[in-house]
Amino acid sequence: MNDKNGIGETTTLSPATTKSTSMRATVPMSIIKQFNLQAGDKLSWKLKVENGELVIIVRPIKGEEYE
Predict the structure, then answer these.
(1) Tell me: the pLDDT tens digits for 7-64?
(2) Could you tell me the pTM of the whole model?
(3) CA angle, corner 10, sides to 32 and 35, nearest 5?
(4) In which element (H, E) is residue 34 found?
(5) Are 31 and 37 a contacting pair, CB within 8 Å?
(6) What sign results for the dihedral spanned by CA atoms 7, 21, 61, 29?
């Protein structure tokens, strides 16, 4: 989805495990391509509220930042 605020994508949540209340979502291909991600890579997710909307900042964690 493209709109005046940028590019958006829709993902579907699924249970993380059968015994957990956590949920999982697929990382959109646009994020994978933007950061050249591979299976096992780690992402940092920063959440903030701006003008009543949740803004999520995603960035890859590389090398020494893993620790």
Answers:
(1) 678 888 999 998 888 998 888 888 899 889 999 999 999 999 999 999 989 899 976 5
(2) 0.62
(3) 15
(4) helix 29-35
(5) yes
(6) negative
For tokens 């780690």, what's the residue?
A: 42
Nearest to 27 by CA among 5, 49, 47, 43: 43
Q: Cβ(47)–Cβ(54) under 8 Å? A: yes
CA–CA separation, 43 vs 35, rounded Å? 10
CATH code of domain 2-66: 2.10.260
Gap between the Cα atoms of 46 and 32, Å rounded: 17
Does an H or E element contain 13, and which? none
Which of 1, 65, 57, 3 is CA-nearest to residue 31? 57
